């Protein structure tokens, strides 16, 4: 059947190769139109299934919770007057940018001065009072400090203390401008119109802000640059793009070099590339229809598909050149397409199936990689099987293709049996060691899409904005009553569970507390006021203590707490929904390091188990998204690898119709993967939620070598040496070309992409070793040639 | 020379007063304070270094003139309404030990060079003696509250630079009982007691 089809295509192509080429070009037109719609989306939320809890909640609360991020414009100069002038000039220019929604660079000093200590939660006011009582006990000669903790403070206590110190410092010394302690660095916070929702617009805003900072820097002769969460995102995006460009350049240069060396001719390049590029264009054009846009994991599919697809062209052209030595052109083409074409078809479909199995994943990073990769394989396969004959015919006619040089037909000698037994044992040991040592990387900061600012910018940013971390999760409460109920629930939970992962909880109630909290704050402040009376205070020697006491003594307690209407916009923005619904936000921070996946999972699970009042929506936030991704990967990863493996084996079995041959074919794959795990374990390379996608992909890619070897070995009447001699070069070239698709990624700055590149290269190399040394060796050991190979 | 501290000055004054009051009873409250100041000042002047024996001497004086029971009762009584009688007794006992250990740990570390006696106020069985202690060009105010009981004036509280000792302890206990259970509070006090005793033992070892 397959032979009939390929013979038909070969005959028709032979008669009118030009027409076939024209059809191929016409078929590219819609694809080229579609390619213009392809975009890259680096938002991690994009990797979750659309019906996941985080994705659903994020969509629902999109208009209310601004997850748009922000930019900082940072300026530095020892000349304060010049700095303020530059700051005001920059601000005037930035407000005119349409992509910028609002900016802020002044603090509502009057508000903070007026309400200062009333803005501190009673919990922390109590700590202040406690501290004052302890100081009093300290200065009393027969007094004893009974409140001080003798055991080491827990991390949480240290954090709480840090927070109190920070807000005391902030409220006590709040300057007019966003500035560092020494006043030499100043900043402007810029909130975008679209932010993370629209990377193109954010990049436009980034460029405009960059230009303004450069102009300001030049005009005033001061240091100026950009920081903030969006700056990190844009840098991350740019890093991915430059990584892809670099990978692409390395890949194409490498591919050209390998092809020229492998074929000892540069003339064959157009023949090799034309059908492949057709397939790639169709695949790229199908992306908007299939998955909408590219995510970080699918972003490099083009180079990977190229690396995989070029193998098909290489196998076909090598075979054609070899057949030309013994057959006329038309017959050589038919043999090539029917024999090697079938191997290409089997290995191509196997690879595509392994990719398509990934499509079952709930993790869209993986599933879309499967859909895109599988579709690309099918498109490339179709393009090559349909249009390669016409391309070869034209190439032959215009003398781009020549017969290959005859090879030395001496059978290769294989090492003794002991060598393979030792080799197998080594792989087994490596696998056991690797399995014991291999670890999962739970640290998001090792993988994030956000690339940190330069140390210089980070340092300056931290000086002006020491607490700029966005909340780990955000709830939305319909009204104040619901907000209070939610806060009570959270506080109860925090009090009842000493090991809670829930850290600080912030809401509008921190500034406008309910009646009970207001009364409590007034009561404690009155006690504090009373406490800071007396002659003992003059005996305090520490200047910080003296300053606090003076502040407390001179500050006038207002008659009432600040109302919602009195809240400055800069505070409202954080705690009141960004639409006109007037709902309230509750920002929750993690108690432990949020960049560690296990903490993020525990935090998210804890929140999901909380029984929040009705009329509360959420939580949404980056931590929940990352935790959900991690949970998906951990739960699905092993199953996906297993299903892909079974699927690939099943397909091989259907194609080979031989259980024994299927086992032989699977051998290099299994041993190659075992070797990969061994190498990973020994070298401390961790599995993460990016590179896990490589395992099922390796199954699809790695089976190619085995398919070609076993099929040719059968054609050669089980003459292993002859088969090895025929295929060593071509399988090495195809492995290198596939690896080149990933090799560029090993130089990527994006840690996730880099981990994919490293793992794929290790995996492909391992499978190459096992396919070309272990498999032939064992075949040679167990099988003798049936008859001599046919005399050519 | 060690840096002057009002803590030192005050403790010295308190200890002098406490030490002397016992021997001259029945004297007026002011006389008790004055005489005691002189008596303990002599001990300090005669000995540049206050060793363990001298400390004990002073502590003995203190304990005989100070109503530690009353100080302890006044501090702990308001908490006893929420405790059983056994708990209250235990609390009182431990706190008294703590006061003693606190005095012991601070004796000998402080000195002043003169006192000014400002006022003596007697109302019924209570008296208030106001003083100022000086050391070089620094000073602090010392107010003694005394109670006449069993034909003796005994010190039942002291206020230094407006810090009322009993009140400060009460404020601390309010916070401790709000945070911890009774047994946890007692455990904390015992721990503090142990650390003061260890500190004192280390000091004695160093001196010897």
Index terms:
heterodimer; A: 792 residues; mainly alpha; Multidrug efflux transporter AcrB transmembrane fold; 4-stranded antiparallel beta sheet; 25 helices; 8 strands; 6% strand; elongated; B: 208 residues; alpha+beta; Nuclear Transport Factor 2, Chain: A; 5-stranded antiparallel beta sheet; 7 helices; 60% helix; disordered N terminus
Q: What profile does the largest beta sheet of chain A have?
A: 4 strands, antiparallel
CATH architecture group name of the domain at 1-36 and 267-406 in chain A: Up-down Bundle
Report on the biggest sheet of chain B: 5 strands, antiparallel
Percent helix of chain B? 55-70%
N- and C-termini, Cα separation of chain A: 27 Å
Task: Tell me the β content of chain A.
Answer: 5-15%
Count of the separate structural domains of chain B: 1
Order of helices and strands of chain B: HHHHHEEEEEHH
Find the CATH topology of chain B. Answer: Nuclear Transport Factor 2, Chain: A
Percent range for β-strand residues of chain B? 15-25%
Q: Supply Rg of chain B.
A: 17 Å
Helix percentage of chain A = 55-70%
Provide mean pLDDT of chain A, rounded.
84
Please, how many helices of chain B?
7
Low-confidence stretches of chain A: none
CATH superfamily of chain B: Tgt2/MlaC
Give the CATH topology of the domain at 1-36 and 267-406 in chain A. Answer: Multidrug efflux transporter AcrB transmembrane fold
**Assembly state:** heterodimer
SSE class of chain A: mainly alpha
